[in-house]
Amino acid sequence: MAVAGLLVPQALSAGMPPRLDDLALPPGSVQTSLGEGLRLYGMPADIRLLDIPVAVADVIPLLTARHPSLSDLGVYPGRAVLSGRVGADLWVIMLEPAGPRRSRGSISVLGGRPDASRARPGSVPWMPAGARLRLDFAARQQGGQVTHQVWTLPLPLATARRAVDAGLRRAGWRRDAARPGPQHWMRGAARLVISIVDADGGSGILVQHHDAGAP
After folding, report:
1. φ/ψ of residue 91, rounded to 5
2. Are 167 and 128 in contact (CB under 8 A)?
3. C-alpha to C-alpha distance for 202 and 181, rounded to whole angstroms
4. Nearest CA among 102, 103, 101 for reference residue 93
5. pLDDT tens digits in sequence order for the chain, 215 residues long
6. Which residues contact 197 (CB under 8 A, 6 or more apart)?
7. 43 located within any domain
8. Where is this region: Disordered (predicted)?
9. Assign residue 37 a region: left if phi > 0, alpha if psi is -120 to 50, beta otherwise?
10. Cα torsion 22, 23, 28, 34: sign
11. φ, ψ for residue 122, nearest 5 deg
12. For labeling, which of 26, 46, 152, 191 is most exposed (least CB within 10 Å)?
């Protein structure tokens, strides 16, 4: 899925489903991967940043002509979002102008469908009842896997902090009181960094989970 929407001819002639690595971007374009082993809501994700010397208004027709399945277009102030299913994957392109003849944005290919079980109560045993998952993003890094999650909880800040603290202790986590700032917790080879803030009449819970034992 390049902004120019030009597939490598060999891939087209073979009838293969398009992949990001099969796409040719216009001269001067830069495509930067965010890393390997990415997952969004449990789905394998290939996410890349784009910098391309073509205006957004010229990019969209090229993409939709080459990929009719990218049929869901949303135009917002300063941004365009084009998406659709290509084979079994969900493709999402987000572009914004970066000058009269340049676009910047991202290309995301999500494999399969979201893992609904990750947002169900009990998917994070220590999370208080009533919490709702708003973001779930994971990436393989040197030394294991790091998962970033954002939850909201309809409890006042102080109550939410007590409930999270109690849940973590019940689940076998222990707090590293020597670390300043956000709460740091440890359990075996796993580490948690948690920040709880006021959010929309309740609380927001930001979680970074580092599992050194994950493949």
Report:
1. -105, 135
2. yes
3. 21
4. 103
5. 333 333 333 333 334 445 666 555 677 878 888 877 788 877 888 888 989 898 998 888 877 777 788 888 888 888 899 888 877 788 888 899 998 899 999 888 888 666 666 656 567 899 999 999 888 888 887 778 899 999 999 999 999 999 999 999 999 999 887 777 778 999 988 999 999 999 878 999 999 999 876 55
6. 157, 203, 204, 206
7. yes
8. 104-123
9. left
10. negative
11. 95, -10
12. 26
User: Amino acid letter at 20?
Assistant: L
Instruction: Write the CB contacts of 14 (distance below 8 Å, at least 6 apart in sequence).
Output: none
Q: Look at residues 89, 111, 133 and tell me which one is the last residue of a structural domain.
A: 111
Q: How far does Cα 78 stand from its chain's mean position?
A: 21
Give the domain range for residue 63: 6-111
Beta-carbon contacts of 215 under 8 Å, excluding residues fewer than 6 positions away, are: 145
**The tokens of 203 are what?**
């609380």
